[in-house]
Each structure stands twice: as structure tokens, then as C-alpha cells.
Amino acid sequence: MTEKERVLHVFETEMIPKIYGFCRLKMSTSEDAEDLAQEICLSVLRAIQQGKTIENLNAFVWSVSNHLFYNALRRKKRHTTVYLPDYLSDGVNVEDDYIRQEEIFLLRRELAHMTGNYRQAVILHYFEEKSCEEIAEALGRSVGTVKWWLHDARNAIKKGMNLMREYGEKSYRPGRMLMSCTGLPGANSEPMCCAARKSAQNILLAAYQKPVSIEELCMELGISAPYIEDEVEYLKENQLLRETAGGKYQTDFVILPGDNPAIADKIREAVFPDYYKQLTAFLEERRELLTGAPLNPCSFSWERLLWVYIHMITVIALEAFKYSHSIHIKYADIPLRPNGGKWIAYGYENDPSVPRPQWKAYHPYDGPIHKVDGVFAEGFFHTWSGTDDSPYFETPDAVFALSGRIARGECSVDGLSEEEKYLFSIALEKKLFIKTADGYRPTFHTVGREAFATLNDLAVEFGRQVEDIFLRVKQLVWAHCAPFVPKHLEGQMGNLLSNHFYSLIPCSYAEAVDTGDLTPPEGEGRLWISLLVSEG
Q1: pLDDT higher than threshold 80 for residue 412
Q2: 3-state DSSP: the chain helix, strand, coil percent, rounded to 5?
């Protein structure tokens, strides 16, 4: 590629969009903007074709654009004054006045993007008229350092004012990120609370694939440096951003595109109906054990129990598989965090345009697990809950513990203490029990400690039988997601990507509904149909 071809390529791919953006900003109508943009492009192309030496294409295009814009203003002033602003009245030098205003605008723009000490030094010296000695004392640095800052700042401003800058896509179309973690959140629900604001989310998204500077973040988000600096410092303190060489920053946890359905579709295509057939055959062979006491204290039907067993057998088997194959970072090895947490963060860039397949009526979730005094409750979200996880998280742990004891007949409703009556009222409000003519009927499954140990042993046994399927799922998930994970985060991949293994559960539910083994339930209490409350 010749030098002329290279310059033409850069102009066509990088500069033309900036030219049109410049014209739309300066002209009052889209027609005028298009006319001016065409004139600028023709002028630049003519210069390139004639072999003009262009050392800095950006600066050259900026100069041509301003020159032709001034000419357009003069033409407009000669022909009409109807649409001209006040400063274009008779007797005013159009070009001089515009240049003065444009330079003030550009100076402010460059100062807005200038970071830290450089910006402070410029403001103190040129706006507050402080001497270098006074600035050095105020900032706790040497006079020589202040002079160096001012020298670099002047050069940066001069260079920046000759650039045709363009804000990034996130300045007008911010992304959205859903965030969670593996492990124990911090005292204020870190890391989730750290990325609750759009500004924080978009900094993390913009800095994900490669390190970026404060100035680059300013241009991408369209936000001035003082605000970006504050947000970056907060994210760095909470260990969601790391500082790299050259004063740049990069996101320090895995973020994937919000395309769970795409992964689940691939899993269903790759291992179904084989996985579902092996799971149901395994359960059917042990039906007598699974439907009798003590594994079924509420005397649920086989179909009702399948809603729990499809979920729990898969979850426990996958947990054993992840640890036996060193996929998941163990809790003991998860780092402690500044505010008392012990977690590894992960995020999904949420795109509402991603289609949801029809069977996505069931969506994967590995929990939540509520633990109190050795008692835990785990449920699986379904479409009829409106994909709303609040009933799980808003229900106190002690409510699940008490509900399990009542459902297993270990205590009666009539003998509850005042505190237990209050907890039971919450259970009724959340539809964990339905009042019938025969008393209170639980809407969830429950087992005791020994029964749960039996269930755990069965799940581990089943996991060994389908290990080849789990390995195929792992390879599929890794192949799908690995291209989105920067090299420095590969060590964290297991904790996030292994969550996609749980797509086996909604795929199994979909298969069960398609084959007629299960029918989506109606009526009260259906939210908790896959909930297991247990001592464990």
C-alpha cells in the first residue's frame, strides 16, 4: 500500500464520520450540514490526490473544516441575516469573532479532558494567577515539577485544539451491565453496589478488553475528567479496576455478553435428549426410595418431586464435577476484599435485544442458598415468578428453617412461640404454605439431614455416570465464552463460565414439558415448586 493509499484509507474509515459530526454540530439544518460535509470531503480528497504532503491528517482535516465553515458563514451573512445569531450583526468580523469563541470552547474542552495535577496546575496558574512557587506549596510538589506539568499541559492543549475529537458510542448510547459474584459479598453488598450507577458500569465496559487512560474514558463516555477520576478511584479501591502501566486502567473481572440463551441453546442441541433420558432413568430406578420416607415427608406425587429432583440432582452432581476437575476456585482460595467480603465478581453486558427462546420459560440460577444454623434452602426461578428473585432474597433465612421443621412434622403450628408465629406469618405471606381444610399444606419440598446426605450421595453417583456429558458441556461453554475473556482474567473463567453448566436444568425442564412428563403448575405456591429446604 502506497502512502497515498494509506492516507485515503484512514480518511475514508476514520475521518469522514468525524467530518459529518462536526458539520451537524455547527450547522443549523441537516441539509446545510450535508452540503458543508461534502465540500470539506472534496477539498481534502483533492489535496490527497494532488500529492500534498500531509504530516498530520487529523490536524489538516480540522483546519480545512474550520476554513470552509468560516466561508459558509460569510456566504450566509451576505445573503441573509434571518437565521444568524446576534453576534453576526453588521460591523462584526465574523471570522475573528467565531475564532475567539471557538478557541474558548476548545480550551474548555481540553481542560475538561486533562487529568489530575496537570489540570490543577493550569487552573491555578492561568485562571487563579498563582505563581509556580505558590502552586508547588499548595500541591506539595517541587517548583520544577510544577513547571514541567505546565509545560506538558500547554503542549497537550495546543495539540488537542488541533484535533477533530469525537465522543465514543457510550456517550450517547450507554451500555448496561448486570453484576454478581461468587463467594461472600461485602458489608454493603459489594461488588454489586459498586456498579449500580451507569457511569461505573460504562467505565468497566469500556476498560474491559484493553487498558484505557482517563482521557480515553472521557472521550468514550462524554464525561469530564474530574468526574471520571472520582469514579475510577472508587472502582480501583473496590478492586474492580486495576491500574496498569502508563497510567491506564483495566477491568479486573470477567464480563460476558448477555447471551445466556445462545449458550443454553447450544447445550440443548449438543447433549439432549441424552442427558434428560439418563437423568430420568436414574431417578426412575430409585423411585421407591425417592418417594418414600424420609426423602418425601410431605407425601408429594412423583411428578411433583421431579420438579425438585431434576434441579437438585443436577446441581449437586455439577458441584462435585467442578471441584473434582479443578474448574471452580474453592472458597478458601477466593481473595478477601476491602470491605469484609470474600468474592470473585462477574458481569453480563445486558442487551435487551437478545432473543429469548420459547423454552426459556425456565432460566438457570444456581441458588440462592440461604444458610442458617446448618439449614439451607435452594430454589430455581421459573417464568411464572416474572423472573423476579426478590421472594428468595426478601425471605429471611429463619423463615426457611422454621418452614422446613413444620413441613417435616418436627414442630406444630399450634405450638409456635411469638417469634416463630411472626416468622410463620411471613411464610404464609410468601405462599410457602397454603391453608386448606386439612390445615397448612407446604408448597415446597423438604428433607432432614440424613435424607439430604442420601440425596447428595445419589447425585454424586449420577454425576460419575454422566461425566462425559459434563465434559462436553464444559468444552462447549469454554469455546463459546473464551474469546470474550482477556488473558489476565483467564484464571477467573471457571467461577463464571461454570455457571453456564446449570443450563442443563432449564433444558431438562423443557424436555420434560415437551415429552409430557411435567406440566407447568397453576395456582398459589407455584413459585416454590422447585425449592428444597433441608438440614445439611
Answers
A1: yes
A2: 60, 10, 30
